[in-house]
Amino acid sequence: MARGKRPSLFAPHVEQYLLKDEGEFIVDEIVKHWVCMIVPVLTTLGGIGLIVLSGLVGGYFWPVLLIPGLVVAFIGLWKYHFWSMYRFVVTNTRVYRVSGIVTRDVATMPLTRILDISVRTPFFGMILNYGTLTFESAAAGQGLREITYVPSPAERDLTIQRVIQRAGLRAMAHRHGHEDEEDDGT
User: Fold this and answer.
1) d(C-alpha 172, C-alpha 161), whole Å
2) What is the model's pTM?
């Protein structure tokens, strides 16, 4: 992070997790698809509607609508903020996910551990261009398995495949696999 630049509470600042001294750089930063924002926005608008309605009703019953309206609006804003703080990052050496508001969760997987990537696109995902990336890894209990609501999932898959290819990791893994076969006498 640049000197003198203060981090904002309203952005995850994914570049702070880079290993810059190792030459790591961001290839792609993925924000959840806009379809994730529909429910939080509608929830917030519903809460605001209750707040406005409480002002119109007046009398003794206005708190009956105001308090739930405030709660519902807060829940909607919280969910919206939660989704906006989520980032999935592809670098030249690894992939990682940053999420959380009150606590920050970071899950990382080196490109060398990615064995396979599956892309699942549901019916509405085909229409609105979003899907899920599922990573198969050599690790049994991996912290980074599924990335949901990925915009342009096929393009994102190809980006990760290109980064792996450019890094020469597939050739290296293939070479090591043949060395193991030769060591076994086959």
Assistant:
1) 15
2) 0.72
